[in-house]
Write a structure and sequence with these properties.
31% of the residues lie in helices and 34% in strands. By secondary structure, it is α+β, with helices and mostly antiparallel strands. It folds into two domains: 71 residues; 124 residues, Jelly Rolls, CATH 2.60.120.40. Helix 1 runs antiparallel to helix 2.
Length: 209
């Protein structure tokens, strides 16, 4: 397009500075100017069409991004039912040896696998799961707990007795349908858990592995 504009203005300048130009030459120059002008109009029209298409594509992309941002996303593939739970204690809790901690403040329970009365998560879907537990101790009360799968410890967690110290333990384990996972005391005595700072969570990673 720059070359067309150059030709256009060159022709106009030539007419202005040439006094001895013949009628035939003037007609040729005017024809060249008209041709250049017509080409410019076509190119401008083409650019407008391209700009319109770009705006439409941009709007389509923005709509897709907005839809993607609003849609729920999980680690599991499309078509696979998600499973996830997150819970903590609503009040200080005393737990005795080998007893499950009943985390009663349920924040998320997708798939309804967690029971807040027993503190036990039962897998509604077979697959590979991520399970995690966080504890916080109170002054003069150390905490020793373990993550249990069907009665067998698969991870241990603790926080020192100095008070307000925390510990986190996470495991990845395979679960069949109705396999049970919970957190229990493992110290052989009664221990006191600080409410909000003690949690139990997990989610399904994948059903095939």
């Amino acid at each position: 397009m720059a070359s067309i504009v150059f030709v256009f203005f060159s022709c106009v300048s030539w007419i202005l500075v040439s006094d001895a130009i013949s009628t035939k030459d003037q007609e040729d120059v005017l024809h060249a100017i008209k041709s250049a002008y017509d080409e410019m109009k076509i190119e401008v029209s083409t650019l407008k069409e391209e700009l319109t298409l770009m705006k439409q594509k941009n709007c389509e992309c923005a709509t897709k991004v907005d839809s993607y941002n609003k849609s729920p996303r999980f680690l599991v593939p499309n078509g696979q039912a998600p499973v996830a739970f997150h819970t903590h204690l609503s009040a200080n809790f005393n737990v005795s040896s080998n007893h499950a901690v009943a985390y009663d403040m349920v924040k998320i329970n997708v798939g309804d696998g967690y029971n807040k009365f027993s503190g036990i998560f039962k897998a509604p879907t077979a697959g590979l799961y991520f399970i995690t537990n966080t504890v916080m101790s109170m002054p003069n009360h150390g905490i020793h707990v373990e993550i249990v799968k069907n009665g067998v410890a698969i991870g241990k967690n603790w926080a020192d007795h100095n008070g307000y110290e925390s510990g986190t333990m996470s495991v990845i384990t395979d679960l069949d349908v109705n396999d049970s996972v919970w957190v229990r005391d493992s110290d052989g005595g009664t221990e006191r858990l600080e409410h909000d700072y003690n949690s139990f969570s997990g989610f399904l990673i994948y059903t095939e592995y």
